[in-house]
Amino acid sequence: MNRVQVRTATAGDRGRILRLLHEASLSTEDLGDWRVEFWVAESDGQALGTVGLERYGESGLLRSLVVAPASRQQGLGTVLVEAAERGARSAGVRELYLLTQTAERFFESRDYRIVDRDRAPELVRASTEFRSLCPVSATCMAKSLQAQTHATPRAAAPLRVLFLCTGNSCRSILGEATFNHLAPAGWRAMSAGSRSTGTVHPRSLALLAREGIPTAGCCSKSWDDLPQTPDIVITVCASAAGEACPAYLGPVLRTHWGVDDPAHATGTDAEIDAAFVAAYRTLRRRIEAFLALPLADLRADPERLKIELDRIGTQVS
Question: Do residues 211 and 302 lie in contact, with contact meaning Cβ atoms separated by under 8 Å?
């Protein structure tokens, strides 16, 4: 898949938006006048997802978030929501509201909080979405956009690194824990899987403990459950061995550090442990090389930073 673009929808996108909403069984009966502002995500001319925003002065209603089934679990929902939030903020919206029946966890991880439905402003409660389209059992959630207006720009903040593989039980966990153990204050790594197993491999935890690396908080999770959007994504799948490597979508710097999956190692206990140690040592040497870079200079030069990270992935083993 080519690069994904997220942009404000135009009149020519209406048919594609309606198809996405119909396929997701989301209501479109109140879209006849198209007063809802939409954003679309597309690649190769194909619409992959959409999200809508209704503005009511300083309040906004986030609605109609959908990602096509073939494009799910790639972080695209987060990218769409962030685009709508930026658009709302630039239009003077100070707080967003939404109703959901299935995505509480998704929105909670993006700083939305559950609120009483009556807490929403009167104009939002008078919307068709609140009055009739969503049942009273739907959860009402809200997010303030005010604090982000005066926040430190992301470019000046420490970069967030995501170690990404398929199962998020071995390599990406080793990368996350090791990076956080070695990184200077303020730098943080996360890990996730495109099809997470839901369980961290016990040999990974045992190895980290032997190395004196904290494992508190290590858990196997989907990239849909990330608490924040990363700035750098490091895939660690062994694509040279024919392993499918997940393609994280969104405006992030990507690099690949292929490592053989020790979860597939066979043989004696000693031989399997050796496979885990080999993966850990490769990742540690690469992380040490990463942290030895002139990061203060490279953060302002993403093209050069990518070159350096790509070089580490091919030359440091």
Answer: no
- 142 and 159 part of one domain: no
Read off the DSSP letter of residue 266.
Answer: -
> What are 51's strand-pairing partners?
39
pTM of the model: 0.54
Does residue 177 sit in the same domain as residue 245? yes
If one counts every other C-beta atom within 10 angstroms of the C-beta of residue 185, the result is: 6
- Of 98, 124, 149, the residue that ends a domain is 149
| Residue predicted with more confidence, 269 or 243 | 269
The mean per-residue pLDDT over the stretch 188-195 comes to 88
Q: Among 127, 149, 171, give the residue marking a domain's end.
A: 149
Cβ atoms within 10 Å of 73's Cβ, excluding its own = 17
Question: If pLDDT is split at 50, 70 and 90, which confidence band does 189 have?
Answer: very high
Tokens of 297: 């200079």
Q: What is the CATH number of the domain that holds 277?
A: 3.40.50.2300
Average pLDDT, the chain: 86
Active site (catalytic) residues:
165, 237, 245
